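Two entries, shown back to back:
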Amino acid sequence: MSAGSFKQDGLGWRIDLIKRRIGEWIEYKTSQLNTDSWELGWLKSKLLWQIVKFCIWSLLAILLVWLTWQLWLGLRPYWKRWQRKNNHSSIIDKPTNTPKFSQADWLERSQAARIEGNYRQAIFCLYQAMLQLLDERGIIAARSSLTDEEYRRSLSKQDLSSLQAYELLLSSHQRLCFGRAQADRSLFEQCQQAYKQIEVNPKGS
């Protein structure tokens, strides 16, 4: 038996072989463990990123809803004011839709609205009766295109002793139509008194 054969079959050689095999096995398992850990970490990182993105979008959605709600709360009073003004306009400020009645017809309608407690409509009818009276008496011809301000300027050029009464009805109509004035019994009675003054004193003395 040669020296080379003895070394490969000897006890020392076998121990070295076993050590080498164990080292290779440990190295293989270690490398495999590192690969699995890397893959697990990558999967965890990807899942974490999905969770982070979901949280970010959820926060943005909540923030958008909150901002929208705050904007609505801020604009709500203006919206109500605009809506109320349109509702008033549908009753008061649309002369093109106002039917053609005589002065007596408007007074009758005013009293009917007063009895029903609809003081806004009652004042509107007194206002229309005043315009019709101006037309019937030849002071100012009734035209749907005329505004309250134009009526006011035309009346100021007339010799009228009841100019303040005209002003009360014109200003009441404007405030009810464009302002925040509320129509009540007291305002109606003031307008009714002003109309009676106009009716008995159409021109200056």
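entry 2 starts here
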Amino acid sequence: MAIKVAAIIGSNRKESYNLKLVDFMKKRYVDQLDINIISINEVEMFSVDIENNPPKGAMDFKLQVRNAEAVLFAVPEYNFSIPGVLKNATDWLSRSGNDLVGKPTFIVGSSMGVLGSVRAQIHLREIITNPALQPKLLPGNEVYIGAIHTKMNEQNEITDEGTVTFLDQVVTNFVDFYNNAK
């Protein structure tokens, strides 16, 4: 039975390469991962003033993560870090319920640049080590897909054989990690 995965798209860009990457993964790994793509576009700005009574967008987001068996972060890189919308979403996850704590999680990221969101993923890893977040993060399987625009066709399928082979291995590793973490 496929693992129910909440895939948090860390960008609000309509043509996000990370959204396309996760959509590709959703189709390719359907037998292993039941991926629910979560947009963070409607998540209101976090404020301590409203944390105990989260607004609808934030509550819907938190519930989707809470109800998943695992989490996938898809991370773009903006100015050497994560986008503000993703930081806001992680702030909500750290409050009023600790929805991410102990949940098996992995991270992927892509960019048009050669580094494939490596700096953003380093920052995200720092953020989620917060005791109020602390997922069980898949170790040693960093997915940094650089020059993503050259590795996809018009149907948003990854055509680069090395990238697909690597993703296949990471997903296999995550499924094993998830099964061992239960």
